[in-house]
Amino acid sequence: MQKAGYWAEIKRDARLLQSALPGPGSRLLAEASSSAPSWASADFSVYRCRDVLECPAGPLGTCASGREGLACSNCKTQTFKTSLGYCSPCSESDLLPFFAALGVLLVGCLVFVRFFSKINLSKQSLTLLTVTVTLGQLLAALQAVGAIRQLSVKWAEPAKSLMDMLMVLNFDFDVLHMSCITGADNPALAFLAQLLAYPFISVSVFVVCFAARFAGQHVKLDAILNVNGVLLLSFNLTLTLAVLMPLQCIRNPNGSSAVSANPGVICWDSDEHWGLVALALFGIMACPVAILALATTVTLRYPGLVASGKGLEALHRYAFLFMRFRRETYFYGVLLLCRNSLVALIPVVLVEVPNLQVVSMGAVLLASAALQARLWPWKTEAANLCDLAMVLMLVVILLAAAPLLNVEEGNKEEILGSIITAALLLMVMVPLGVVAWMFIKRLRPLSRFAVFLCHHKAGAGSLARFIKTILANHSNSRIFLDSDQLEDLALIFDAVRQSSNLVVLLSPELLKRMWCAGEVTTAVENQVPIVPVICDPSYVFPDTDTLAEISSYWTDDQKATLVTFGISMDMILDAYKFLQELPSLSMNTMGTLSEKEDTCITLLDKCHLQKRAFAIKSKDGEAARILVAGNSGDSETLSICMTVQLMVQSELQCQVVTVRSAEEAKPHLDSADFLLVLFTKGLLEDPSFARLMLAVASRGLEYVTLNADAAFQFPTFDFFNTIESEGLPGLPRELGPTLSRVYRGLMTILALPLSPMGSEGILKKQVGEVGLRFIDKKKEIRRSANKLSKAATTDDEPDFMDPVGVHSDKEIQIKIQESL
């Protein structure tokens, strides 16, 4: 007699075997599982079945009704599997589940495509985002239940039936009576159907999309890619489980191994299994590996894409990866994919060690819950709470399943004892490691900086901020800027000693500043490599006579301060002479963003710093939504404008461009809705800025203003009267009244504060406040209410780029009046 759940292959006389093979409950059969060689040498061979329903207790070779093959794993021709283990004959009505599922799939694709192609995934309302995210979390949790279902657990009712119902989410198509469609219960065909399930869904999506486009509906390519991306991420766990199925082999009592899902397929010893393995390897490379590689590559490139001005384009194209998470945790999608891969691998890798399956699965889920609670990555509070609750419920399911594990008594205590010992050791070692790390952190010297930026705050403070921003975009190295890192000036020379490079921004007043002199001297005395950067084309090193008079610029107290740090005048003069002999790097501070960034990248090479692998150069792209303007004749103002451009671009993830003239603004006037103006000294007297304002006013862009200079004085009535009567130098006099009107409109906007010399944290908060001026309640960048399209303007458009002007004051007045 054979025991339920096992199947015996008869080799010799059946009567001899009937007396030799133990019956149900026999001790010998239990011992046989751990004594494979004796069974292998017997006159019969025992295999483990999928469950007791397919291989009931009875005479040797007994299978449930309608079943055949090794270990009763297959249904007979023109029969289908039932939930009770036997196979029932197919009829015409048994074809309905398959075609019904096909119809539901096509309708679902149509609804899915219409829904996702009509919305901007990166700019959903929070309510809609919460609904879609929560449904996605539920789908992922149900797929995780499918992975837990594959553990070596003797599931009890009604949990077993509920889990079996969820197997369709894991592309188990037995419920659709697939054997009635194919005519035979073939493991290779079933596995091939699982592999082709997602490609079929993807093709269906493309067919629906192209049908919609043929019907006249405009469906963007990015929308189609996003729909497929959402599906890929939603079924990532299912796809991983499916392709790993042929590799999940369990040991039979006769010493062989068989595929867990198809015990009739002998692992590594049959052509059928090698065929499945070949398909599995192809599926592994095409699905989980390719998905994870794509997601990882895009995620690594994402900060560079945003910083380079391609953020909006990247967000649209890869919205399925980033739109669900907060900006600070954009990388969480990759972490979810890694978690899903581990969840799918555990039943396969630990199939021979069931004791470790539940513990390992629980450890992965608990680590995921802890990481999620720490990062709080989802955009809404409800989505974070829901995700945490579902993961914890999965852990509860594992705790309840632990007593139901199918394990061998012989080594259960040994394995569980090892697990408990490891957990106890970790429980002690982790806090001790934290304590040791705190002591090391306390006793070790100050952290080293890769670059120390030595600069004159008034002459190159904004430039130093810009350089640090660019260097941070292209390197992970720590950059020292006094406004960010320094709280005590007494520590500034220690920071120089602990730096790998000193970058000296040579502006006209730098060498006359006491602290800058001390920084250069400290670097020379401590053999810190120095890279001079000339920030002014007319800059020349002071001659010997000028150097001799350097000390006259400092008070006695300043000289005494240097002496307290061990720095004498002779040391300073020697350091300056050494600095003069070093090869220097030139930066065109009035150049474009790309030109200045190229110089910063060269600076990284000079300092021998490692670059980011996926960093992308910034560029002034097309179709900018926000224009940034300031005093075009001042290099410091230009630097802070470009810094604000990069920060706003990163904050809002849209195209932002710094414009210095009407010529530079012209390509963006059709797409731009806002002009961000930085108030600095001399701004309103700049003729280039005046022509820019006239060009912008003619198109109705909305103004946002920042007070970036304490020396800026808001204009008085006398200033406006002077412009109206005398005009502005460099512009035709007849433009004076129009310019006065535009300037008055600009001054009516409440200017937000901006601290160019403040810390990075202060700047980020201030830029965050500025960003609120550009967005609406849906967190979208709004459109200017006064914006005039190019078609709405006359063909005879005022040429504000010509300093002489070619239009009458009346024509220009009409144009400005339309926008104002």
Automatic annotation (TrEMBL):
SUPFAM superfamilies per the UniProt record, alphabetical: Toll/Interleukin receptor TIR domain (SSF52200)
UniProt KW Cytoplasm keyword: no
Give a yes or no for keyword Cytoplasm in this entry. Answer: no
Q: Write the protein's name.
A: TIR domain-containing protein
Q: What's the domain of life for this entry?
A: Eukaryota
Q: Please give the InterPro entries that the UniProt record associates with this protein.
A: TIR_dom (IPR000157), Toll_tir_struct_dom_sf (IPR035897)
Q: Where is the TIR domain?
A: 451-542
One GO process term, biological-process aspect: signal transduction
